[in-house]
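Key result, reporting period 2: structure in, sequence out.
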């Protein structure tokens, strides 16, 4: 009998208007000096600012620090935010924003209880103290960072993303309120939704997947693609589908590991400053097609429950993806200036950097495989 190890660790409250209950959740932790880090663009969100005033009135010692970054944080930037919080000694961290702000919240919460450098924690740190309690409140859905134990930062010396990966990073509480997401531009909503799809597909096909993780992959995929193809993406009620898709996809990914698509997204996201979800979207279809053409026939299960007419169901799945890419104008790699002549060197560089992601693919995936995927995109 197969032995399955599976974890779920974050307490989640989801619903329209849930952000208005933040003070009640803070109170449950016994906090008197909460430290809040939030995206700078939220200053233009009246729903956010109104409720932030309520929090600050209830907790006059509250510390408010802004994440001014428009891109993804480096370890150096994490150290900067750590110093800002250290001067005020918060007893709980609340991260409100996109995936980068969630990651900063995790990093700060960990560093405030561990007197070490941020860079010393990259990878899978051991023998570390528990972080400060962390509440995450996403303002865009897709990355799933609000419930994951990964905190991803760019290592400037290596020129790539390297995470702090520890189950101690799990947020203690997540508050999910679609009303907070309504000021995000549609381009960001679509990019984040593509991130969710990548998580669902990579985790589903992973060699480490289990029947339990696949349940979350499938539910996440169905909710996310339904949101992108059949719902009004500007309707807050519809965004509940995306929130659920994101939660499911990330839960599956944490329990099964990723694959080449997520790896490509990390590489080209840093190299060309492409939003992570959009970078994943560029590669998603082609990696799936490569797997299908090389013998992996299981993707149809992401949309269809029975196993009859597998070839026809795979065709329908890819037809849905084509419709999605057309509807939301997902870019292709050549849009970023790459040419056919770049393929060989790119494939070697990508393969060297992404062995971990490549090893999760259901079909052995190597430099030659990467060349074929890149060739189909250029």
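The corresponding designed sequence is given below.
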């Amino acid at each position: 009998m197969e032995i399955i190890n599976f974890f779920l660790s974050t307490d989640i409250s989801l619903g329209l208007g849930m952000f208005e209950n933040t003070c009640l959740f803070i109170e449950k932790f016994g906090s008197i000096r909460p430290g809040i880090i939030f995206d700078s663009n939220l200053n233009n969100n009246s729903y956010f600012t109104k409720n932030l005033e309520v929090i600050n009135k209830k907790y006059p010692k509250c510390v408010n620090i802004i994440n001014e970054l428009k891109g993804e944080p480096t370890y150096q930037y994490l150290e900067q935010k750590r110093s800002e919080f250290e001067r005020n000694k918060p007893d709980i961290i609340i991260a409100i924003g996109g995936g980068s702000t969630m990651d900063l919240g995790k990093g700060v919460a960990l560093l405030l209880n561990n007197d070490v450098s941020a860079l010393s924690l990259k990878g899978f740190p051991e023998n570390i103290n528990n972080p400060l309690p962390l509440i995450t409140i996403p303002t865009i859905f897709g990355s799933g960072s609000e419930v994951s134990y990964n905190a991803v930062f760019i290592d400037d010396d290596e020129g790539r993303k390297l995470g702090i990966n520890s189950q101690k990073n799990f947020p203690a509480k997540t508050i999910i309120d679609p009303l907070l997401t309504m000021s995000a531009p549609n381009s960001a909503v679509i990019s984040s939704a593509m991130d969710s799809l990548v998580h669902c597909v990579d985790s589903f096909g992973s060699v480490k997947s289990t029947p339990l993780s696949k349940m979350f992959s499938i539910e996440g995929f169905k909710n996310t693609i339904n949101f992108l193809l059949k719902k009004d993406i500007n309707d807050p009620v519809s965004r509940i589908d995306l929130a659920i898709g994101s939660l499911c996809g990330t839960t599956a990914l944490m329990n099964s590991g990723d694959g080449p698509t997520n790896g490509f997204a990390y590489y080209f996201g840093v190299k060309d400053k492409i939003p992570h979800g959009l970078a994943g979207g560029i590669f998603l279809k082609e990696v799936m097609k490569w797997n299908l053409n090389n013998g992996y026939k299981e993707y149809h299960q992401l949309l269809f429950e029975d196993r009859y007419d597998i070839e026809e169901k795979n065709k329908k799945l890819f037809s849905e993806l084509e419709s999605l890419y057309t509807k939301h104008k997902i870019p292709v790699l050549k849009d970023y200036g790459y040419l056919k002549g770049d393929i060989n060197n790119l494939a070697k560089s990508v393969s060297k950097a992404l062995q971990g992601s490549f090893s999760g693919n259901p079909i052995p995936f190597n430099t030659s495989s990467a060349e074929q995927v890149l060739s189909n995109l250029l």
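The chain is about 45% helix and 10% strand. The radius of gyration is 20 Å. This case is discussed further under Risks and Mitigation.
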